[in-house]
Design goal:
alpha+beta; 2 domains; 5 helices; elongated; binds zinc ion
């Protein structure tokens, strides 16, 4: 699997209007990653977003929402645990701990700063985890690239 053969775009059809939209770059990576939360996608013809249930991949005719569910189930166990429940909770706890530590040092030990730091860390780290860290590990360590899923 060389990077040359990794697709960077794919076409989908909006069932309601029958128009084809090509998704590429970051949006393509996001829509291909079944562990990334996406509520809907864009139709160029309609000019707005609709739920993934209303779109099918142009080449396979599979509903995008169904395809993503299948991809999540078919992902290697290591990738699944990295991206779901456990991984996210680890990131959550780690973020809270790091945030509390930062709050402690910035706020000179004031409990309020520790609480704010913990809250921010608990929110921010899972986002970074799911958006950057988990996909990077999935790809580099396990060779799992969502863009190759069909
Ligand atoms: Zn449309």
């Amino acid at each position: 699997m060389s990077a040359l053969h990794t697709p960077n775009s794919r076409a989908y059809v909006h069932l309601a209007c029958g128009s084809t939209t090509i998704v590429s770059e970051g949006d393509f990576t996001a829509i291909c990653d079944p562990f990334r939360f996406i509520s809907g996608t864009f139709c160029v013809n309609c000019g707005t977003h609709f739920p993934l249930k209303q779109f099918v991949w142009a080449d396979t005719n599979e509903v995008i929402a169904d395809a993503r569910e299948r991809w999540a189930k078919e992902a290697p166990p290591a990738v699944r645990s990295l991206n779901s429940g456990v991984g996210c909770w680890v990131a959550f706890a780690l973020g809270a701990a790091v945030g509390a530590g930062v709050g402690w040092s910035v706020g000179n030990g004031a409990m309020k700063a520790v609480g704010i730091g913990a809250g921010v860390g608990a929110l921010v780290l899972p986002i970074i985890w799911l958006g950057i860290i988990a996909p990077t590990i999935s790809k580099s360590v396990f060779g799992w690239d969502p863009r190759l899923l069909k």
